[in-house]
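It is time I had a proper look at our fold encoding. Can you supply me with one protein entry, sequence and fold together? It will help me judge whether the discrete encoding reads sensibly. Leave the record below and I will have a look:
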Amino acid sequence: MSEGPREPKYSATRRLHLKSILLRRATSMLLAESEEKRVEKERFLAECFPQPKTSDLSVQQLQELCKELHRKIDVTDEARYDIALKVDKNESEIESLRQKIASLKGVRRPSLKRVKKNTENLLGAYSDPSKLMKADFKANLKTVKKEDEKREEVIDWRKNVEAMSGMEGRKKLFNSGQ
């Protein structure tokens, strides 16, 4: 066995010629197949749906023919509707089964990429003043002073019931309000 470059069995012109022959043969086979399908379709349609002979029919017979055609259309529409319902039901059942399978498999967590951390990067992040200023964003915020609401001391009403009773108690309340 020689380790040198292999020579092809056929020359380039011979391969090109064979390729063109194969392509011509394939196109002729495709044309024949499409013609065969067309003939088969026409035969099937002629067999299942013969052409109605309307040339020598009276008006009454034409009306009967129309009614019969409408009945056939209704039957085929009902069958198509039933099949569509079955298909929808099967698709929903398939989807629910897929969801059950997915729930049984469990939720896949995506694989996370590993981040390489070394001490220089960590120490650089803490020692770099520009990074520290970015991290300390609360220092740049304005402080808002809240006014303390004047709260009256909560006084036990049971202790001052006697002191506040009568006119003197009302006078004390009036004086403390001013």
